[in-house]
Amino acid sequence: MFEPDRVNAFTPQETPFYYYDIALLERTLDAARQAADPMGFHVHYALKANFNDRLLECVRAMGFGADCVSGNEVRKAIETGFDPGKIVFAGVGKSDKEITFALSKDIFAFNVESIQELEVIDALAAADGKKARVALRINPNVDAHTHQYITTGLDENKFGIAHWELTEAIETLRRCLHIELVGIHFHVGSQITDLNVFKSLCVKVNELNNWFDERGFRIKVLNVGGGLGVDYHEPDAQSIPDFKAYFSVFDEFLERKPGQEVHFELGRALVSQCGSLVSRVLYVKNGIKKNFLIIDAGMTELMRPALYQAYHRIENLTAQADGDRDDVVHYDVVGPICESSDCFGKEVPLPTTFRGDLIAIRTAGAYGEVMASRYNLRQEIRYVYSDLL
Ligand code: LLP
After folding, report:
1. 307 C-alpha to center of ligand 1: Å?
2. pLDDT category, 140, cuts 50, 70, 90?
3. Which of 255, 272, 289 corresponds to the end of one domain?
4. In this model, does residue 70 exceed pLDDT 70?
5. 275-286 and 291-295: which strand pairing?
6. C-alpha to C-alpha distance for 22 and 45, rounded to whole angstroms
7. CATH number for the domain including 133?
8. What is the DSSP letter of 109?
9. Residue range(s) defining the domain that contains residue 377
10. Is the dihedral angle over the CA atoms 188, 149, 371, 160 positive or is it negative?
């Protein structure tokens, strides 16, 4: 919720910028921890959602681990003070250099995505006289029912080891003397709002957990990935995801063997709602068929609408603070980039809007700032924190 005083505090800021509500972030992290702790669940934060320094610091202070997908993310997590024993390194294409670096930091585990990668990690660990802990990422062929670009757990996706390769994978593991299998890992997609998807995942994890057990592999960790969705339509009514409902699905349906740990890799659910992209209206173009608001943020600052046709709620903060604009006009809200895909929303109902008004694009804390680019040689993205305004 943007209070008028907050909006007035934005006035001297150069736009566009990301605004991070630190109090909401802390409440969200706390809610996740309060829900996970009683069930004995371990949460690793997926840095890819947002690696802004201040956000990372809050996540670390809350005691979460880190889920990284590049050597640089591993480095960043360590620099921020995450315990290496709580860092996992995932990704379909880890380079030799990244693997060697992560080995040197003695991270908790590599989430391994292919048999060839097992062999490479084994060889690199042998060269350094180390033993690498790994979790096998298995493609469970569970449909996440989300956007095709962020569905990852189907047979046609590039991720993970297919179930028909598992026999070969365990033969390889028996040969690889510099690898210790500590877990099995899954991630079926992102922005999942139907909790039944996670029930289906639990069923597959149980089957595979038994499969490994029957073959003499004692699996210490069941890592079920991330993917919990957020409400892009009602960011204020649903500012904190229902972590309890989410974790309860796993508590109820996952069959843990004695001593087994359950790990999660949440990104979006932890940081989305605390972030908004704040932008100023540069021009209002009233056409015959369309009214356009041309704002000073573009797909370079928030790529999700252009890339995934993603919906983000758009609000006119100046009108909200004025409180006296009751009419509604439908605008296409677009950025300044030289592409028609540079559009944040079509036919968006807003009060009559003027040049200079401040616009907020909500629920932008995850996969916003981190996916910004310098295309068109745009200014590097700025950000402000709510408690430093
Ligand atoms: N674990 C793995 C292996 C992942 O691939 C991902 C996200 C996560 C965890 C965290 O998922 P989350 O809890 O945030 O859903 N840029 C897209 C989302 C890409 C997600 C990639 N993987 C977007 O803006 O919607």
Report:
1. 14
2. confident
3. 272
4. yes
5. antiparallel
6. 16
7. 3.20.20.10
8. E
9. 4-17+273-388
10. positive
Q: What is the DSSP letter of 257?
A: P
Q: Do 78 and 113 reside in the same domain of the chain? A: yes
Matching residue, tokens 């305004």: 389
| Shared domain check, 319 and 366 | yes
Average pLDDT over residues 195-223: 96
Single out the residue in 272, 302, 321 at which a domain terminates.
272
Q: How many structural domains is the chain composed of?
A: 2
Over the chain, what is the mean pLDDT? 95
Distance CA 51, CA 53 (A): 6
Q: Model confidence over 312-341: pLDDT tens digits?
A: 999 999 999 988 898 999 999 999 999 999
Digit-coded pLDDT (tens) for 34-51: 999 999 999 999 999 999
150 pLDDT exceeds 70?
A: no
Percent of the chain clearing pLDDT 70 (strictly above): 97
Q: Pick from 88, 159, 265 the residue to mutate for probing ligand 1's pocket: most ligand atoms within 8 Å of its CB.
A: 265
**Are residues 250 and 173 part of one domain?**
yes
Task: Count the neighbouring beta carbons within 10 Å of the beta carbon of residue 30.
Answer: 12
Q: Are 221 and 182 in contact (CB under 8 A)?
A: yes
Provide residues with CB under 6 Å of ligand 1: 46, 49, 67, 90, 150, 152, 187, 190-191, 225-228, 265-269, 304, 308, 366-367
Q: Is the pTM of this model over 0.70?
A: yes
Residue 90 Cα distances to 52, 66, 160, 203, 371, angstroms: 20, 11, 10, 23, 18
